[in-house]
Hints:
Layout: E1 6-10, H1 15-26, E2 30-34, H2 38-47, E3 55-56, H3 67-78, E4 83-86, E5 92-93, H4 101-128, E6 132-137, H5 150-170, E7 175-182, E8 194-195, H6 206-209, H7 214-226, E9 231-234, H8 240-247, H9 249-256
Helix pairs in contact: 1-7, 4-5, 8-9
Amino acid sequence: MYKNKTIWIIGASSGIGRELAFQLAGKGARLILSSRRESELQELKKELNYSDKHVVFPLDLENLFELNERLTELMETVKTIDFLFNNGGMSQRGTARETSMDVDRRIMEVNYFGNIKIAKAVLPIMIKNGGGHIVVISSIAGKFGFYLRSAYSAAKHALHGFYESLRLEEEKNNIRVTIVCPGKINTPISTNALTAEGKKHGVMDHNQETGMDVGLCVQTMLKEVAALKKEVYIGGREIKAVTIKRLFPSIFYSIIKRQSAT
């Protein structure tokens, strides 16, 4: 499924994106590595299997004004993109009432508008080459709201609406879409989350520290993507909340309000 494929990973410098890079390189894929931090991407590239095959392509999800032009230049080197793992983004640790509109807009800009702009840019490339597979990393917060996550949850909900529509529209062009909803995964996502004032949370929350190993998360993800699943839930007991909400909403609301926000 992945060997000799060209795979673009957004948010490759840490967390799920970094682990995707290691596992996909191990499967023989050629990678395009993107995040804001070029130096970290260069160090990552050196650590990967077949390091000479991979390409560093730094970008900032808040500043994609020249994306199409830069992507055209990139295609002169890599020729095609078979998979897009649209993984970049930021989390939140602030109540809806206290979070400034500037923070709401920034989270939406990065987690939604930046995400879909990349998808829109890559679609013509995939269609020209007969198809492709977009894997968007959402969250179980994209299925229900949670404490201190109002803007984050809103952006993730928006991704579901966009990609479910895109899947229907582009199936005729052999475009596949998998939406991945991780639960509690051991990554630095809480450390880099924005507070109500727009500052870094700077704390490794208990929910992340005790979450599923990121290696197991990515291993499961790649297996489900290869099986052409449309929506995937990965994590521990917390992912059962999605089913409980759908089947037993009153029980769900009783349970969710007792959960720790961090």
